[in-house]
Amino acid sequence: MELKNRKAYHEYFFEQTYTAGLVLQGTEIKSLRNGKASFNDSYCLFEKGELYVKSLHISEYAFGTYTNHEPMQERKLLLNKKELKKLEAKTREKGYSIIPLRIFINEKGLAKMDIGLGKGKKNYDKRETIKSRENDRDVKRQYGL
Fold first, then answer.
1. CA-angle at 14, arms to 8 and 19, nearest 5°
2. CA-CA distance, 103 to 136, in Å (whole number)?
3. Number of folded domains that form the chain
4. Which residue range(s) make up the domain with 71?
5. 76: CATH
């Protein structure tokens, strides 16, 4: 099971990526295993030295009862102290953001999230990316690669 944030690669240039653990409650892991999550406008934010992901929508579990989780709650991300300090220092610089890139379940059955330290693209950068992607596609078509 893997969920990707394709829009993030269109909107940002990523300098570094990190893999962080997710702190989940109850039925959230079951919804993730069913692929019921959405990255729409999600981002990461520091609060009191800890990193949280906000606006990540994990749908309620269909067979959950009164113990079901809140779909839009903020969730804590687990990283080393060294990595957290490095990220916090970078985000204080102008233009840097921490964006969730993908959620996956590792071989031990734990939910992990890849996050990227990115800088926003300008409109002309986005057009260049689209143009190069189309050119690559045309070359592959022409030469049958």
1. 85
2. 28
3. 1
4. 2-143
5. 2.40.280.10
